């Protein structure tokens, strides 16, 4: 039962970190991603709650798989969880983001912003998964 709670809390923490990250980097991210904006500079059509729900669901998938990998690998210490999470974000997720963005001919800034978030979010997930 504790593993389920850990997984859920790790996903919530990563989701909250994303809210903070993308609020701070909203303008450069929207420019790099080519998001159409209205007269107030907000994304056209507003925020779609289904995208937020999907985003959280994907955070939960990543958190669950990280928990599984940690359990299988014997990663139990807070330092090990943090380092492993950072490594997953930096060496698994960010390169994949870079591949997708390069093939879509997106600006490198988009990879820096999204990859940076992947590193931070996975690091936090790893930390939370090893706290309990």
What do you see in this structure?
- With 132 residues, this protein is mostly helical.
- The chain has one domain (2-129).
- Helix content is 79%, strand content 0%.
- It has five helices and no strands.
- The chain has helices at 2-24, 26-33, 49-73, 78-103, 108-129.
- The chain is globular.
- The model has no long low-confidence stretch (mean pLDDT 96).
- Pfam families: DUF1761.
- This is DUF1761 domain-containing protein.
- The chain crosses the membrane at residues 50-70, 82-99, 111-131.
- InterPro entries: DUF1761.
- Keywords: Membrane, Transmembrane, Transmembrane helix.
Walk me through the topology.
Blueprint: H1 2-24, H2 26-33, H3 49-73, H4 78-103, H5 108-129
Helix pairs in contact: 1-3, 1-5, 2-5, 3-5, 4-5
């Amino acid at each position: 039962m504790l593993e389920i709670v850990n997984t859920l809390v790790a996903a919530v923490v990563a989701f909250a970190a994303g809210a903070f990250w993308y609020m701070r980097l909203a303008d450069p991210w929207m420019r790099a991603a080519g998001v159409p904006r209205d007269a107030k500079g907000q994304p056209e059509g507003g925020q779609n709650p289904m995208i937020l729900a999907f985003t959280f669901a994907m955070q939960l998938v990543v958190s669950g798989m990280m928990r599984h990998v940690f359990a299988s690998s014997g990663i139990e210490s807070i330092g090990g969880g943090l380092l492993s999470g950072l490594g997953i974000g930096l060496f698994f997720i960010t390169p994949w983001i870079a591949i997708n963005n390069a093939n879509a001919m997106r600006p490198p800034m988009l990879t820096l912003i999204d990859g940076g978030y992947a590193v931070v979010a996975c690091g936090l997930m790893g930390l939370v998964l090893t706290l309990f």
